[in-house]
Each structure stands twice: as C-alpha cells, then as structure tokens.
Amino acid sequence: MRKKIEKEHVGEQQLPRLGVAPYLELMGKTASKDTNQASAHMGLLLLWIGDNIQDMMDLNLSSFGITESKLDLLLLLILHQDKEGITPSSIAGRLGIRRASATALLDWLEKRNWIERKTNENNRRMVHVHITPEGRNLVDQILPTFWSTCDSFISDLEVEEQVVLKKILMKLNGSLERRLGVGR
Amino acid sequence: MRKKIEKEHVGEQQLPRLGVAPYLELMGKTASKDTNQASAHMGLLLLWIGDNIQDMMDLNLSSFGITESKLDLLLLLILHQDKEGITPSSIAGRLGIRRASATALLDWLEKRNWIERKTNENNRRMVHVHITPEGRNLVDQILPTFWSTCDSFISDLEVEEQVVLKKILMKLNGSLERRLGVGR
DNA sequence: GCTTATAGTTAGATAATCTAATTGTAATCA
DNA sequence: TGATTACAATTAGATTATCTAACTATAAGC
Description:
Two copies of one chain form a homodimer. By secondary structure, chain A is mainly α.
C-alpha cells in the first residue's frame, strides 16, 4: 500500500505566467491621463521586486523562528542601546505601529528571554526596554544569514549595474522616507 | 496586514534616526567573510524601499476598503478571464498560498459580490471562479489610483536615472522570480 | 487637592496566513 | 465492480500582526 506525501501537491492546472505585458495593456486602458505610464511600469516592477525579496528574506529567516519585523526590533534595540530612551512608545513611534502593538511584540520577545523591561524609577509610568545577552546571541547567529540574503538579492547583476543602482537606490529611499515621514 | 495610518499623538521622546551607517558598521562586524558587503548594502536598501512602497500603496488604497493582495487577486481574475482554468487551487498556486487560504480570500470577496463561484459540471470536485460586473467596476475605480501610486514611487528620479533603472529592474525581477520559482 | 495628560497594558476585533481533518467526487486496480 | 486511493474544496482551529477603545497607574497643572 502506498503511503502519502505531505506536499499538498498542487495539481497540473497551473495558471500560465503572463509577464508584465497584459498589466501594461490594462494600464493603458485604465490609467488617468496624467499618469506617466513608463514610470508606473517601473513602480509596478518595484512593487513586485519588494514582494519577492520579502519572500526570500522570510524564507531564509524562517529556520531561526523569527520574522524580519521582530529581527528589526532587536536590531533597533542593539543600535540604540547606549541611549536610555527606548520605551514601548518610542519603539511604536519608530516602527510606525500603535503602542498596543508594541506591547504585543515585546510580550512575545520577553517570553523568550530576548528582551527585558525595567520601570523608570524617576517616572514610574515609563518602561525601559533592552536586549538580553540571549537576545544578542540570537541576533549574532542570525545576522550572517541576514546579510548574505541581502547580498543575494542583486547577485545576478553586473558590477557596472550595481554601481549605477547604488546611487539611485539611495536617492530613492531618501525620497520615499521623506514623503512617508519615516526613516531608520 | 498593515494599517499604520492615524497618529495617536506619539510623545516627544522619539528615537533619533540613525541612517544606514550604524547598520553598515554592524554588518562589518557580523557578516560572513564571503558576503559582499557593498551588495548587501544595496540589498538592505531594497528591503527598506520595498517596505516603504508597500506602505505607500496600502495608504493610497485604504480608502477603497481593499488591500493590495486582494486587488492582486481581482487583477488575476481579470487578466485570465478568457481561460476556464481559474479555480481555488490554481489561484493558491499562483499566489503562493494554501488552498485553505484561497478559500478564505474568496469567501471575503464573494460576500461582497465581487466574485462568483461555479461548480464545474464535468468534474464536480472543481469550482470555477470569476469576477462579477460589480467586482470589475470596483477595480476600474481603483486602478487609476493604483497606477498613479506606482508612478509616484520614482517621481523624484531624473529621466536619465529612470532609463537606467528600468533595464536593471526588469533584470532584477526576472532573476528573483527565477530563483523563487514564481512569476506573474 | 481635583482635573487632565501620559505611558503602558488589557480586551476584543480583523486580516492573512498556516496545518489537519472532513466532505464529496473521480480514478484505479485486483 | 467494489474497495481503495487521489484530489479539490472547505471547515475547524491556531498563530501573527495589526487595530481601536477602555482601563490603570502615575505625573503635572491649576
């Protein structure tokens, strides 16, 4: 008797890949006339690329049992650890989430002993947050994979392409951060 | 899902923006020696850019009461609507999610009358999915905003920068899709 | 000393995902 | 041809990440 797989084996009837062309055709029919369609084409590619690199990072981090957003928070704690001002509020402000959401993230990390909370004795409403040695240890284990994954995103590009891209990406990121009013 | 919209008046004690430098310094100390740090720097920027454009798109679509991932599904239905092979399974395959997750998405869209399910009479295990006129109407209302948002991502770049970027982005997206085994 | 503001948490909700189990149908094969 | 296996979809139940609103404790202002 044959026993069974586990892959949830997706059937043969895959939808064909269409590529970008039908999207551009639809854009031609549905974009407002003051939209620059060549730029929008690039924006669409950026959206897809963002999606794909996010998936790739999630995939590579999944074995560590932590998501990129939680790693992000731990990095924040490391990079600001000399300052005393790391509180649930300031974390929420930096990550662009509500205080209640920060509480939930911190609960999760605290339960695993990767961060600690300590009440501010001068203002007992406030709580200081810091990473523990175990947390730092975890991050040190993860970071080599994190950086090599970042490296891998553009590994298929030629060196000259990378040079050009670098300048543009820095400018682009600055522009987006300015317009969103955020920034790391 | 992300919301991140209102303000909830965040207090004064904001964490300072550090910029990329401390990240690069940390990378110097923690990256494996076969990581190309210049490339990883660009990868990090791409990750941040992806995050920022996703936020910008979410923000601009939020007033339509639909997320980008659900719009994505509706676009899929539109672009494949001549073919008969659109089923929960094929949707799950294309979106890279499980069939159960596709069922949940379709339930949500069906409840709002934007899609319809119809049992395949030749093989009663299968269900065909198609967009309704109301669904198509909704998409037509959203798309101008969607395209202009895509356009806006790179609106601060010079024309020459855009020209260079386009070629690189197409190559980059192709490379990522190939490595992830996905594609639109 | 009341009143108001602030920081954090709790309670309860929703969205987007997952795995495992279930249901109904089709195909295989002994 | 009837039992077994495979497959498509759904259901049930869980987790993660977010939200808003309400609550608690503390500090500050008048």
